[in-house]
Amino acid sequence: MTLYKAPRIPSSEITPRDLYLRRRSLLGLMAGGAGLLGAPSAFAAALKTVPSPYKVDEALTPRESVTTYNNFYEFGTDKSDPAANSGAFKPSPWRLVVDGMVAKPKTFGIEDLIKAYPVEERIYRMRCVEAWSMVIPWNGFPLAALLKTVEPLGSAKHVAFETIVRPEEMPGQTGGFQPLPWPYVEGLRLDEAMHPLTLLAVGLYGETLPNQNGAPIRLVVPWKYGFKGIKSIVKITLTDKQPPSTWNVLAPQEYGFYANVNPAVDHPRWSQASERRIGTGGFFGSSRVETLPFNGYADEVASLYSGMDLTANY
Ligand code: MTE
């Protein structure tokens, strides 16, 4: 694959939003060619997208930070490991199975999905349970659109998600120390899964997802802690039971099933009242900002939890 090389613009001279727009127009000129400024994923390609009303008006986290400061334990436990160790991962071809309590179970290819559902440009505030945050321009389509296609049965109450297991391409899944049981799994209640904010992302910054961010398809639920955002999904199953969630199974006293961002409920080992906003205060630096209930999306999602004690259901 030929990579486009452009002169580097000192990042100190431009805001992340300028950088984004520059890249978007550059990619537009390249008419579908793969390439970008900075460190590319081997598979990054321009995506055709449509605008979306779901955009927070906050400075974007630079692409370099979004793609080099990651959690993806299949590639190692350090923040720099996923970018460094995911080069051999092959996100294409890919099959996504959607099954369980649905009238029309189906296996999709990523190309089919991108053709069937308009890929939107959304800008979401993202909050990791480790008390750091980013503002990321995702490209994706609502999970609800996909679920409607397979027609959930009345008995379906939850949605279970599963990441691929591929030790030959994922060094964190081999060797003596394996940090998590595989596959990484996650779950949502059906009403959370059907909420218009819940996104299946296939790209970021206008390009297909880099491997380290969950290529070729991952979940994004902006009002929840980042660990709910399961990456490189191969299976989505509708069920009548609350599905397992990797971090909740591993340490239930520290990570709840709901994992709604809640500044009033501290993690047992640290406060959740504020967060480090990555990429502010210098290109790779960070400044501290107050954490908002439901990560600032309370107006849209608080009603999903009316009547629930959110200190018990964390
Ligand atoms: N998905 C899988 N399969 N494996 C993981 O280790 N880490 C989670 C989530 N999804 C993880 C995963 C955590 S803890 C976070 S904060 C987000 O991915 C990070 O997403 P990002 O690296 O794209 O910011």
List keywords for this structure.
314 residues, alpha+beta, Sulfite Oxidase, Chain A, domain 2, 7-stranded mixed β-sheet, 5-stranded mixed β-sheet, 8 helices, globular, disordered N terminus, binds ligand MTE
Distance between the termini: 46 Å
Biggest beta sheet summary: 7 strands, mixed
Average pLDDT value?
89
Q: Which architecture name does CATH use?
A: Alpha-Beta Complex
List low-confidence stretches. Answer: 1-40
- Rough outline: globular
Q: Topology as H/E string?
A: HHHEEHEEHEEHEEEEHEEH
Tell me the number of structural domains. Answer: 1
> Under CATH, the topology is which?
Sulfite Oxidase, Chain A, domain 2
What value does the Rg take, in angstroms?
19 Å
Total helices: the number is: 8
Short characterization:
This protein has 314 residues and is of the alpha+beta class. The chain has helices spanning 16-29, 63-68, 81-85, 110-116, 143-150, 190-194, 246-250, 298-301, and strands spanning 95-100, 106-109, 120-127, 132-142, 158-163, 185-189, 199-204, 207-208, 218-220, 233-239, 274-278, 286-290. Bound molecules: ligand MTE.
